[in-house]
């Protein structure tokens, strides 16, 4: 069975043409090497598939030439435990990164308060200096 057809049947990609484009773009690897669209796959092969920011390493456990429901498609492969843990770690890091960013830019009122705060704090330290003139 061709790898593009299996990726489509296993529901990694919506259409075979999208699967083909991903393979040609270097998003699918076997044994750390790029796969060709016509590559014949077998049960037990390990594929690394990159979809967006996620990179999955799966072991093929079944072959199907037809696209069925998601519950059946999930039985065609098994994701490796290291792949699952790596994806979860990266997802949590992306989530924490999004929390560090403000949800919205400051409004006019917020900017005024920020400027007032900055001016107030700089006035306190205008006379202060590291150097002393008295020796």
From TrEMBL:
Do you know which PROSITE patterns this protein is assigned to? S4 (PS50889)
Q: Where is the composition biased (Basic and acidic residues)?
A: 96-105, 112-135
Among its keywords, does the record have RNA-binding?
A: yes
- What ranges does the record give for the region Disordered, renumbered to this chain? 96-135
Q: What is this protein called?
A: Heat shock protein 15
Q: Which CDD domains match?
A: S4
- What keywords is this UniProt entry annotated with? DNA-binding, RNA-binding
Outline the extent of the RNA-binding S4 domain.
1-64
* Pfam family name, one: S4
Note the superkingdom of the native organism. Bacteria
Per the UniProt record, the source organism is Acinetobacter pollinis
Regarding protein family, the annotation reads:
Belongs to the HSP15 family.
